[in-house]
């Protein structure tokens, strides 16, 4: 518990130790829905905007200097995965209903309604989200707030400030808000929010007419829908407005506590985005992942793929698709000066695509969009040539593209350079505001682009291949300009991983490498190896030591690892209520969090005798 005097002193020691070890950032990874609630205020979904969310920021301050959040886009009714969220609209589930019952919001939500939402939550104070319940309950509560908001026409806070702010918000964000709110109206009109099964064929393509005649007819239909559902469209905009105001206040609060909030931008597009911008996507293809650790058949994500021919004009300037992507990242950097994590940077540089209705496997026609010069359908987009390929390797292998010219690397990296880095610069940020999730299959083109633009990637030590001495996730090989961690939202907690290694040959190989890298100066190496192969707590402890002892300037710790919660947040390639539902329990301050003092002490010692001698006083103070 960071709140006690002794532990505040510990926090100072942690800061001193992190500086000695060359760490610039220490981030706690926790998705928005995983934030705790205060007792009696658990609606069924976590949010950083709540009082409990602010208290977690207080808890983190002094030890962490950043919170790595998950994607915050609006999710659909049938899928709680944040990685299916919208690219522009925020998720109304992150609105703190409690605030709307208070004076600052002119009590536009009744206390009675708020208490009803809480009391009817079937997973009250169980440390889990209840997605299907809160999706509807939150919407109903916000409708009440909207009706009351409309009535506040004379005097008070709303007349003088909020109503004007609301109108300004709608005007400033009209380039995306009009499309997203129109989709909401059409979802009501068609009975569901999944446009692929709408019965009205016109509604499916309402923003994508094929000719002048359709454009005229579709415009008439749009006017009809806007008139019929004018209040629903305004309600959608109102929810986005409330969310943005609360988000802004939370980010200001976090910065006042020395915490920057890092957003998460998935490489995928939601159903809502696929509908609005369908003319910009490559027909007949989806974005996915080739066979890997998580799935022997690959991961069929079902996300649309931006058409390369719509991304850039012939002169190299941004096309309609490129402008859309640039606006997306500008919005994200503007709203998140703490930075943006890009999930699956491979998907922006060297994406794996597969045919609609097929598996994401080579034998079923899948391939890399820009690295398949031999592919009968993808070859026209290829940057790599036939001469650049190692033809002894299949299309899904990392090293298949064996040679690249400087010009080719620029072409692979132009989306990153012109859109992502360009957007950051226009918002007054530099490349350090970009965190690239480059885990999994890292192809040679992706590696080349990362190096050319000196982008910060990730090193996940749980995934080190112990048989490979030069594996990039091994401590001795980890570079400075990366984010280092033992696991992300897709991995087992480190204690669970350690348990699976006990008394196994693989565990022995991991132990041997850890001793070579972290205990080079000790005499009893064999004893330490034996202990690492038999003691799961000790193995987990040393794996945490490893990320701080490495050269990496940045460290992230997933909340389950920090608080030693032995449950997995998400299992890739699967679906169901268990995924994405884990929350930090309300009594998290009473949990047995990891001992950072001890971890950092050992990390300093593991840097070698000379380093330890130089920092002997700090080692003593760390206990």
Q: State Rg.
A: 25 Å
Number of strands: 12
**The named CATH superfamily of the domain at 22-263:** Glycosidases
Q: Which architecture of the domain at 22-263 per CATH?
A: Alpha-Beta Barrel
Q: Helicity range of the residues?
A: 40-55%
For the record, the CATH class of the domain at 22-263 is Alpha Beta
Q: How far apart are the first and last residues' alpha carbons, in Å?
A: 17 Å
Characterize the main sheet. 8 strands, parallel
Derived from helix and strand composition plus strand pairing, the structural class reads alpha/beta
Mean pLDDT over the residues: 94
Task: Please report the number of helical segments.
Answer: 25
CATH topology of the domain at 22-263: TIM Barrel
Strand line-up across the major sheet:
9-6-3-2-1-12-11-10
Query: What best-fitting shape do the alpha-carbon axes yield?
Result: globular
